[in-house]
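Changelog-adjacent note: as of this version, every example in the card shows the full chain rather than a window. The one below runs 179 residues end to end.
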Amino acid sequence: MYAHRLGVALASIAVIALTPTSASAATRWFSDPQGDVASSVDIHRVRVINGEAGRPAVRVTVVQRELRAGDGFDVWVDTNAADPGPEYRTSWIANSDSLGVRKVESFSDTGVAVSCPAFRVRSAQDDPGDSSYVLLPRPCLGYPDAVRVSVRAQRQVGKGIVKDWAPGVLNFYSWVARG
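Full-length structure tokens:
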């Protein structure tokens, strides 16, 4: 009797472990080297959520060493695997303003503004967690099946600008499937 119950319990655990969930398919955490930039804008981790139940949006969270007013952020979003560059860019400044969503052809393209009324950014130095996030509703991005992102954080220091790119200059993290 005990062996039978143990076998049923182990089989149930195996089924649960092997069943994919939309949350795990739609969410990925990526690491970035810590200490590679001597500034508040040193990116530590990036989380990408590509849609989840009740929230048809792409959410990108940037965790850095210390979020300070004036830290600037750019997130490039690739939605088309056949086109190696980004299709969208969003930018914001902590404790200040967002520059919205722009349709772009490359990393250097200033692009064209995209109407995106439900677009949101949260980036304030007094919020807990030293992180910022941007919420990009899926209709603004053309309803992509998968996305990948490149993130740049920057800050004016003296007469120069300190930048940290995640995962690297003009590079993208891996694709994140839609949830």
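Structural remarks: The helical segments are 2-18, 22-26.
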